[in-house]
Design a protein that fits this description.
Helix content: 40-55%
Strand order of the largest sheet: 1-4
Oligomer: single chain
Shape: flat
Strand content: 5-15%
Number of helices: 11
Distance between the termini: 59 Å
Number of domains: 3
Radius of gyration: 22 Å
Largest sheet: 2 strands, parallel
Order of helices and strands: HEEEEEEHHHHHHHHHH
């Protein structure tokens, strides 16, 4: 009985870009077939069989909007500072968990995530949404609150992760470390890395190929920061990217 239950708790996911020639192998456990799936959740991140992040973004956007709706119903009479704190503590983390891995490059998914923050700005500022007559610019609300775009925050998160990797603050095997540039350049800092030349989108828009060019463009004093806190502080200053 235990063996039968065990195989029902397991699934198989095959990850490939070539869907037309995808290998279909029937895996078994205790002589029972294991069901194939196209998506799975691993450590809180939804992975699909083509390493695309649309399923994950759809899922976290829905969860964040549900929570924002709950806060709107619960805290509608609360002061602005409490609403803002609740958004930053409860809603925004849902949109940023592990974002250095799944940070989207397609504009439609970037906009989808930003839309939740725009709704949050209306909630915090207590500005209702009206189809017939816009009350005020939502961009103006976001700017007035001093919020960075979520896209900018994700970029900072990727750069901070690369700082951790290159300074030994997180355990990552050597094969996943970026390679230093062989020849120093007359422009930029001395800690630049070789850029990748990927052909497959799943790799092209993954963490290292997307982050290395932004890292190479940073000022010398930022990449030479003595601590992660100092790096983040310098990174948040205007005109660093």
């Amino acid at each position: 009985m235990g063996h039968g239950i065990q195989h029902k708790k397991c699934n198989i996911i095959s990850i490939t870009n070539n869907t037309k020639r995808k290998i279909r192998h029937q895996y078994t456990m205790n002589n029972e077939p294991v069901s194939p799936i196209d998506t799975c959740v691993y450590l809180g991140v939804t992975v699909n069989s083509r390493l695309r992040w649309n399923d994950h973004i759809d899922k976290i956007s829905a969860a964040a909007n549900r929570m924002l709706g709950f806060l709107r119903r619960t805290l509608y009479k609360c002061p602005q500072h409490l609403k803002e704190r609740s958004y930053k503590a409860i809603v925004r983390p849902k949109l940023e968990y592990c974002s250095s891995i799944w940070d989207p490059h397609q504009q439609k998914y970037i906009d989808k995530l930003e839309m939740t923050q725009r709704r949050a700005a209306r909630f915090v500022k207590n500005v209702p949404y009206r189809r017939d007559k816009p009350v005020t610019s939502v961009s103006a609300l976001v700017n007035d609150l001093g919020w960075e775009s979520l896209q900018s925050r994700r970029l900072h998160d990727r750069l901070s992760m690369l700082y951790r990797i290159t300074n030994g603050l997180v355990e990552v095997t050597e094969e996943y470390h970026p390679m230093p540039r062989c020849q120093p350049t007359s422009r930029g800092h001395s800690r630049q890395f070789q850029r990748f030349q990927p052909e497959v989108d799943a790799f092209k828009y993954s963490f290292l190929p997307r982050t290395v060019p932004a890292w190479n463009a940073l000022p010398h004093e930022v990449v030479k920061a003595n601590s992660l806190d100092q790096f983040k502080r310098l990174l948040s200053q205007p005109n660093q990217l």
